[in-house]
Amino acid sequence: MTLYADVVLPLPLDRPYTYSVPVELEGRAAVGSRVLVPLGERRLTGFVVGLRKKKPRISLKLKPVAEVLDEKPFFTPELLAFTRRLSRSSFTPWGEILRAAVPPSLLLRTRASVSLTPKGKEALEQGTLSDEERRVADLLEPRPHSPLYLERKVQAKNLPALLARMRKKELVIVEKKLKLVSRRERDELSAGPTQLELDFSLDEGLRKAARAILEVMAKKAFSPFLLFGPAGRREAVYFHLIREAAARSGRVLYLVPEISLTPALIEKYKRKLGDGLAILHSRMTDRQRELEWQKIKERRAAVVIGPRSALFAPLPDLRLVILDEEQDETYSQQEGLPFDVRKAARIRAEEEKAALVQGSAAPTVESFYSARKGRFLIDLGRETATAKVLLLDFRRASGLVDPRLKRAIQDRLEKREQVILFFNRRGYASHLVCGRCGHVPRCDRCDLSLAYHKKEGKLVCHACRRSVPAVLNCPRCKGRLVVRMSAGIEAVAEELRTSFLGCRVEVFAADEAARKEKKDALLRGFERKEIDILVGTQSLARQPGLPPVTLAGVLHPEMILHLADFRSGQKAFLLIRSAFHFLREGETSEVHIQTSAPDHYSIREAARGDYLGFFEQEIRFRRLLDYPPFSFLAEVFFSGENARHVAATARMFVTRVKDSGKDVQVFGPSVASMARKRGLFRVQVNLKTRRLETLNGVLSPSLKGIRSEKSVFLFP
DNA sequence: AGCACGCCGACT
DNA sequence: GTCGGCGTGCTC
Fold first, then answer.
1. Which CATH architecture has domain A388-428+487-623?
2. Per residue in A598-617, pLDDT tens?
3. Fold (topology level) of A204-379
4. pTM over 0.85
5. Burial letters for A517-553: b for 16+ Cβ neighbours within 10 Å, e otherwise?
6. Nearest nucleotide to A156 by CA–C1' distance?
């Protein structure tokens, strides 16, 4: 009786393919194995997700598995189940999730290689080739290349077709060669018990907080927790839990935002955790990643620290998943596969029957709400605030920077201290507007109004970063374009330079910092005290390793409140709180918040450092307007290069949702506010319901068969 | 993802 | 008339 294997391939396919298992491989093929299988002309690595004796009903003659690549299953059943559920919940094919989970070097596959035939060589010498053919032949004359390489090098519009023609004429041959795994000798490292040298003191309060979590870990059951409190105390609890887990040979996955994984932090963790620590992050080379994987699989790591990608760490016997800085926005809106790290961490913990410990000093409102309701909130207390906070009511002030803030800056400058100011708008003035017809120049790709950068005399699209020289006259009516004054960081910098002559002021924005050298130069300059005042957008707030200052200013955080986003209150709160992270410890440090909405609770409570105060009012607002967590919201994004195509897809999706007859409110489609990548059109559709089941019931069928790039984010 | 097939406009 | 653009569909 033949054995059949259901294999998930690392491609955007919606179901596994079935292969027969040759008798000689039967003993080695297991659920979770990597296998090399034929697909069309290619051979590639797939993952066995099921084995069965019965032949499936498809009438195809099944191809055999070519090779089993592992002695022991590559994925544990838990990890496999996790990726399957993640695939379902993120509407991403399982194979794509698996591909993202694995170091690329572990996915062998055939690679096409194009080489010139003797006949082709002859034709090249005799000059009987067409222009395009000759360019290809020139490249192939010294040695074969991959079609991809040719694609990059040859300026041909349709290279595959060109190659097909050349192949027909026998000018070239295309071979599929298997990229071999470099069977390096295994680094013979002792796989003995991992030694963690952990000795952390934990006061009685924290010890008590950790006890509930330890109980769950001992039972090997899933249970969520939210550690609410300052970073230092959270970390103390984490390390206590890690030590306890290690003592029972349990393993820990420790997720942090990408940004906070700085070399300094990695060093700190290494000091604390020693050899038993594995690190996974995006800047590693394939080889490094592979080595860390090996280490984790071979049980030589007790703790894995990393962002997003560490979610897939192949830890055996996982007892604890830590998700620190739970509120961090990059957990949901990062590049790559469209899933929310918070949701994914929960699924992983559920499948592994591990404890899930989320930590934050200012959790997302949804998370805090459910933690309190579900009684898994652990309050670690507040930090005693040392900094002085001033809320500057800007409604009657003039200029860009409040006179009171200016006096404070003056004071700091005299003491030779540095200042950081945050202002969440780039450039000089936001846009140009025609004085006659009211036309505003917009980006023809993103449809956003173009920002006017006075210094460079350019109009810049803040979504796709394209810029065009600023023009003086309206392209429509030839009327004169005037600057609509709404200042950005450049204007602020200019005002400060005027006010404080000889003062060194620099601006820091994501586009400004696009060139890494420039970004580094700015940061180093600030470190060396060559810059007195740094004015930056939100991207500066995400910059690790700046030297602490004694005065930080936040200008107009209320601008965030105008965003069409139900989380804007939380975002404003977090922006203000992020300024506090740049302060030097001590009573002389100050934060000034200059705002025209000093009475808004997000701003007032952020100034007071009162998360609970903020939460109570925000949750009231959410309930009033029926936003998450009191309703269920799906934000669906469609993107692609072809605007018409993207729009048509979105419209079809909306039609399907409306035709479903389900009780769902539909908002959109509308142009998404920010393009993630250059030149990609993004269209957004929001759905709102009272019941989660309704949302799930309508999303899958409505997205069925939509192959263009899409992402779905669910709230809460 | 690759890759083949098959259908319409512009040029050897 | 062919070339060559790209939308559509298939791969166990």
1. 3-Layer(aba) Sandwich (3.40)
2. 899 999 999 999 999 999 99
3. Rossmann fold (3.40.50)
4. yes
5. eebeebbeebeeeebbbbbbbbbbbbbeebeebbbbb
6. C4
